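User: Structure tokens for both sequences below?

Assistant:
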Amino acid sequence: MHSMKIKVYKKAGCPWAAAVIGFLNELTVPYKIINVTTYPGYAQEVERKSGKWISPTLDIDGTILADASVEDVAAALEKGGVVI
């Protein structure tokens, strides 16, 4: 098992975030969801990290993926040693 720290910043109802979360669940990769709709202060955190606010944005061990697709997440996980 790997020890990657993954945060998923998402807006409520975002279909792209739902796809990424479904992918992570399928792989049984642990992650933390940060809902910026419920906690708007996290939107500022995303902007500070990525320079923009787009859902979903992921922080994978300090690597920021803004407007991340399932393919982007898969590539980042593989780079971190997760077998897809």
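Moving on to the next sequence.
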Amino acid sequence: MDKEPEIIEAEVVGKNGASNFQKGLAVFLLIVSALYTLSPIDLAPDAIPVVGWLDDLGVLSVATMNMVQQFAHDQNAVMVKILKYAKWLLIVAVVIAALLFGGLIAAIIALVTK
């Protein structure tokens, strides 16, 4: 009598959540973003009122959303898909806002120094 071949079930990332590597990377990125937020060395110094805080808030928010996304049990859930697109929208919004506020501050400084 022939035995039926054993079917080895592979862990499907879509149903069982993200891999351990992705989860570890998400935790690492959250820690690095928290250190970046607390650090006085930034891309936009905190002395510039809005832009300095905007980059810190953006980096920390994106890292937090990434961690929530990676630790979700069902990677096909609607929340995970929304977070995926929300992260990129937030990144684009922070970059645009930082460029606009930075340009505005540079223009004000140029007008004042003339």
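User: Anything stand out in the second?

Assistant: Residues 41-113 form one domain.
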